[in-house]
């Protein structure tokens, strides 16, 4: 209203100082530079920052408010606000949004110490004269958007093929046990049964195959 009053006085031919004098008589103190600052057109960056801040404040109670800078940039771009990472980071700090950082963990597939290991029946000789004579089992892991996924697999040394595998989200002992069962069933179904006493099932010294149950 103050700006509108001064603007109206200027339209009627009065100077800004005259309008300020009238306002002072009414107990309103307004400096000339304050009036000119109010009248100044906001810079493009200021307007864009205001739009981003408004978008951030709208996320206050939403799950997206926990995003870090990288995810927040992607989210804002999907909403039509394409801004640089540094800009979004600056405005997030201004809005008091720090995000939640997940501490990176190192996944371990072995356990320290000698433990109760089964003997190495192959003596590191990974060769075979025919199928179903030597199977080598191992497991690996991969990071996904929802956490770690662990995959156990069995390789027939003779054919160099993965003959069985199993994936799950935990590292229980069943991870390395389960792949055997469909392989044995498939070999029987295709009339290539595993003969008792002819097969050596070897695994590494990983923490889930450490007890010697599947060596």
Query: How many helices does DSSP assign?
Result: 8
Mean pLDDT rating:
77
Characterize the main sheet: 4 strands, mixed
List low-confidence stretches: 207-215
Characteristics:
alpha+beta, 4 strands, disordered C terminus, rod-shaped, single chain, RNaseH-like_sf, four-stranded mixed β-sheet, about 220 residues, 8 helices, 2 domains, Transposase_IS3/IS150/IS904, nucleic acid binding, HTH-like_dom
Q: Mind explaining what this structure looks like?
A:
With 215 residues, this protein is an alpha+beta fold. It has 2 domains: 93 residues, no CATH class; 111 residues, no CATH class. Helix content is 35%, strand content 15%. The chain is built from 8 helices and 4 strands; from the N terminus they run ααααααβββααβ. The chain has a 4-stranded mixed sheet with strand order 3-2-1-4. Helix 4 packs across helix 6. The longest helix is centred in the N-terminal third of the chain and has 14 residues. It starts with a helix and ends in a 12-residue tail after the last strand. The C terminus is likely disordered. GO terms for molecular function: nucleic acid binding. Involved in the transposition of the insertion sequence. It holds the Pfam family HTH_21.
Write the layout of secondary structure elements.
Blueprint: H1 2-11, H2 16-25, H3 32-39, H4 44-57, H5 69-78, H6 85-94, E1 134-144, E2 147-156, E3 161-168, H7 174-177, H8 180-189, E4 200-203
Helix pairs in contact: 1-2, 4-6, 5-6
